[in-house]
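Thread: quick sanity check before group meeting

JM: Hey all, I'm pulling together slides for Thursday and realized we never actually wrote out the predicted structure for the chain we discussed last week. Dropping the sequence here so it's in one place. If anyone has concerns about the input, flag it before I start.
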Amino acid sequence: MLILPIVNRNRVLNVEVKLKNAGKIRTGVRFADASESEVIVNGKRFSDSAYKDVRSDAATLEFIRTNSMRFRRNYLITTREEARSSAYDVYEVEQPPKKINDALDNLYVSAITDMRKEIPGIKRGRYLSFEKLGIGEHLTDEKIELLQDIVTNVRDAREWPLLFEKAGVLDMVDTLEFLKLFDCTVVEDTTVAEDTLQGMVESLRKLNTRESRNLASYYNMALSNRDIYAKLSTVNKIIYDKPLTLIQSKRQKQKQLVKSMGENVNGQAA
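JM (edit): ok, ran it. Output follows.
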């Protein structure tokens, strides 16, 4: 389970991040021709490829893209084996989008790796840092200002893509589209008041133990994720004139679903 800690309105939220287009299709099975933590693309296994010897998580995504060039079919991922048997679960995942930059590829690979390392029946969280992935590197103030200038001075939105590309800011727009692949849901009953966490970090700092350092690292990660998310939201506001709503609670999603269903019913009635 990928967890994005993030500060929001004087609270520290823990957000589960996963791919929307990935679904578990089998549980408690074992294929004769596939081991645990496998990736299968058009019948080809990652463990049989030259990519398995590459010491980089990105090799998994390169394997998927390379073996999907002729046929863009959904691919399969097997989890790790169950704790007390040799069975595992199987995910089916839609094809990844084209590459935008290394940072977004790192995010996508993190989601793939999380599925491959999953142990059925056991929940283990892995923290996600936008900064470590490199997502904040291309979200500079200078590029955001260039984006704002184009949107402000050119009224015809049809001209924006070409102007964005010429100005070198199109990757920020593509980032917003890429992030739509992910479902980001606040984990219930894990929210902490920021001042409470801050107080704990300060109180334990003098101890300099592993636990105190981990707590400080967690808080710093939540602050960094907040800052990068704020820049993403600024870009979204400039282009679409609305804040970014990538992160939502289960209650917000339920309300959104009910509203959407109501609009569909009204539209059909009309």
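AS: nice. The CA atoms of residues 1 and 124 lie 6 Å apart. The first strand starts at residue 2 and ends at 8.
JM: adding both to the slides.
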